[in-house]
Write a structure and sequence with these properties.
Length: 593
Amino acid sequence: MAPSEMPSSINGVNGIAEIYEYPPTNVEGPYKILNQYHSKPTKLRVACCGAGASGLCLAYKMERMLTPGSWELTLYEKNPQFGGTWYENTYPGVACDIPSHDYNFTWDPKPDWSQFFASGKEIQGYFEDFAERHGSKKYMKLNSKIVEARWDDTEGIWNITLENQVTKNTFKDWAHVFVNGTGILNTWKWPDIEGLHDFKGPLMHSAKWDHSVDFNGKTAGVIGTGSTSVQIVPQLQKICKEVEVYMRSPTWISPPFGAGALTNDLQKGQEVNPGQRQYDFTEADKKKFAENPDYHLDFRKRIEAEINSLFGMYLQNSELSNMFRDVITKEMNRRMGPGHEKLKEFIIPKWSPGCRRISPGDGYLEALVQDNVSPVFEGIKRIVSEGIETVDGKVHKMDILVCATGFQVAFQPAFTVINGEGKSIKQDWTNGPNLYFGVSAPRFPNYYTIVGPGATWSNGTLLPSIETTIEYSIKCMKKMQTEGIKAMAVKQEALDEIYSHFDEFHKATVWQEECRSWFKDGKIKNRIYLWPGATIHFLKSIKDPRFEDYDYTYRYKNRFAFLGNGDVKATVSKDVLGLSPYIRNSDHEWSID
């Protein structure tokens, strides 16, 4: 036969159409060779709880990291609109404490941020715009609250129960993989104070702001000194007749982090108020960012590098920690001005900066010393119809009461998660969180939490950790899809060892000092569920999964069933270059699909 007459799959003989099907649940009988090419993916069904930053990132990354047509995704969102925390939190002054140019997805810069620290409304706008540009909305099912996820060992799927938030009807779904993208600070809570709902005036929580209430000329009480109170109080001070701030605990109010790029570039030569963190970008600034992407990238990189370089401040008695204590103490005193000794004595903590998350806040300390603001240091005994009764017996009358008391920290998910043994996470996590790298839980296969307890929450920017954890989860999904894996669950011994490393590392960090913090599950002394290193250290650790830390259940009687019938994808797709990727002009990386 002449060479030209040889049959060749490249010329279209024996072509096979690409169809992806759900994998078989249980394969009976003796082992047989699969009639498929090497590592052909099976169809993977994925459900994600939440359509905030994590859900949006998951949809975007699955489109780029998995084979088109080989997966399905639903983002279940309990709210009528997506966006997560930036949709829910609309209180006056709500803003991000990370510079705006690094509070977008790392690959998706926004040159026209209006301020150095973006408002919640502008961040929500960014995520809404992102979803429009990338077609994310087709994956979403809004007003859908996940109630329970129950793992079926036999079928290798999560059975999910949901509640429609409009009709309150329940409905079911299933998935091979379940992703918890709800974040740690998601479920807000009323403070545990006697008589709270006896108050006869408007009562509101910072996370569910009532915009129908008019604060002008009114007396308002604000409970709390955390990051939300720090943002709300300066706004109320401007319009209320009087504001009483019930100081539950001291807090460090910091100068700006990551502002070096701002002061060295855009504010060069300008006289800058040292207490003023905020900066309004000019049209010329925005134009320069938009027209010079390299300059904009350098600006963003310098912000991130500065934040990553500051991790040393969290090491107890380090030079950086002592320097920060000195600098922030002087700055707080300067901002409160002369006098106000009782306030200064109370609000400046005894513990090191960073033991609790540092609250940056323009105008907060300045507001506390205004004539129409009264810090109240006595503890709250109870709430009465006309206001707050403090432990000294005094009743403080007010028109409006605001609880800036934060969230029920979701170290455990807000919904029920039950494994194949019939045990819930609540029952399994008897001594606190049990989460490897903040993402995987032993005995709960194919379940991924995006930046859960044990990841980076105290320092650095959050979105890179979300992105990298999602990429990690998708790499696990791809392994399951292409290697005939029914279930993969992280080993308890791996988690025991990483927690042992946590405990040893944190003996020398500021987080183990005497402060009550959600890093420690709301306790003063507890295991510290924070990554033992800077954000960039966490990213390096989670960039590539350590698959050796997992146990696997295979769908077939042979773990190598995925090798198939001896073909590779390029044989089937008749791809000349794909059939010769290792033939090259220089020694560079190559791979075979």
